[in-house]
Specification:
globular, single chain, disordered C terminus, alpha+beta, 6-stranded antiparallel beta sheet
């Protein structure tokens, strides 16, 4: 039985790739994220470590644009701090919370938070309610 040159080459390529995959020098595959949380320090990581940005690289940018859209006109300097998700109790709605600092018109920079409903299946968020971080009272803007 003779093996064609193409068959020999294909076999060699398969063997080489198998050896590379088993090599101790081969890089480990990136772990699958298990969290929805994003901290400011995570933004400088080479790969996202959260579920939503792994699925959609523009996820956080899109969230921050939606939050910026509900801030009063003239607000400036939105500085992201944290994104977190709180799981629902008894199959109720999940919530997403974004902590950030922003300068509202005529005021010094202040810590704020935005809260919205969150769907863990597709990382979809609802309408954002924004409040000062320390007040605990969210008002839709």
């Amino acid at each position: 039985m003779q093996i064609s040159h193409a068959g020999t080459m294909a076999g060699a390529a398969l063997l080489a790739s198998a050896l590379c995959a088993c090599s101790p020098d081969a890089p480990e595959p990136a772990p699958t994220p298990t969290t929805y949380s994003i901290n400011k320090a995570d933004l400088s990581a080479p790969e996202p470590g959260d579920i939503c940005r792994t699925r959609n690289a523009a996820f956080l940018r899109d969230v921050l644009l939606k939050i910026s859209a509900v801030l009063p006109p003239g607000s400036r300097g939105l500085d992201f701090r944290q994104f977190r998700v709180d799981e629902a109790d008894d199959k109720g709605p999940w919530t997403a919370t974004v902590g950030f600092q922003v300068t509202l018109p005529g005021e010094p920079a202040q810590a704020m938070r935005a809260v919205a409903s969150f769907d863990p299946e597709d990382c979809r968020v609802g309408e954002w309610s924004v409040s000062e971080a320390g007040t605990g009272e969210a008002s839709k803007r």
